[in-house]
Amino acid sequence: MFLLQAFSARLKNLSLTLNSVYKIGWSKIFLLFHISPNLLVIGKEVQTDYAGFIDFLCLDQKGDIFIIELKRGKTPREVTAQALDYASWVKYLSNDHITNIANSYLINKYNLELDKAFQKTFKIELPEVINTNHHILIVASEIDSSSERIINYLSETYSISINAVTFQYFLSEYGKELLARVFLIEPKQVEGNTQRQNNSKRQPNLSYEELEEIAKSHGLETIYSTIYNNLVNKYFTVVSTTRSSLSLKKGNKTIFTLIPVESSAEKGLKFRIYTTRFSDFLGINLEDITNLLPASQYAWENYPGATLDWSGHEGFFNNLD
Q: Structure pTM?
């Protein structure tokens, strides 16, 4: 095992269970901070579609998801099977679904939406695409030999990003409470075990030219290039792409998006606009903006119950009239 924190001599190891640790005042959030201060908690007791509840759902600065499961009163088979079951659900969560989960938790707890909480935590902008990879971390007061074998097997043989961390509670001779953490597998080793899988899985964002080719394949090249050239040359200087879309931004906020991957010759070129942001940026009232949009436009929210800043319209441009 890899000891990340060690404490001075003359400490009394009380070998408490997780439940006992909570009783003496070490909260779940405090434990989580000691697991890794480089994670942003975006959900607590998150309900999955399979009637289970994930103890903690977190993001790291790359936008990867961490599933953190506390092993309390569960057998080795139960805790590992449950964690893998949760991972099978998390794997398919979309950006919008994760944003919804995060905002429900973060707004209630900190009055911050995901993008602001992420920037405050990591001092960088929230990636355009999140949940490219996900990781499992099991937290326990001790790890039995069966759990150890299972976790090592999954990590070494199948390159699954899974690890376990144990805590030991110490009381110094002066009555100071200390907490030590020990990872089952050295984190760098887990990262190495999964690197091959991640390299093959993580695909680069499409370029402007590649997105233009997709629009062209739908017969929408003229609409795509005309809208892009007019908006970028006149109004926007910050442009970013994902695997499906091209976003026009002001600072770190997306204002207008073209989505060739979800477009078609029949419907037209799909767009999404944050209407209030667009209005504030260009000084145009909301009614005039909606009147300029195609008749196909409809109201859109980044997540259910979103604020005006995270709402707008989407639809399809099928001509330039």
A: 0.60
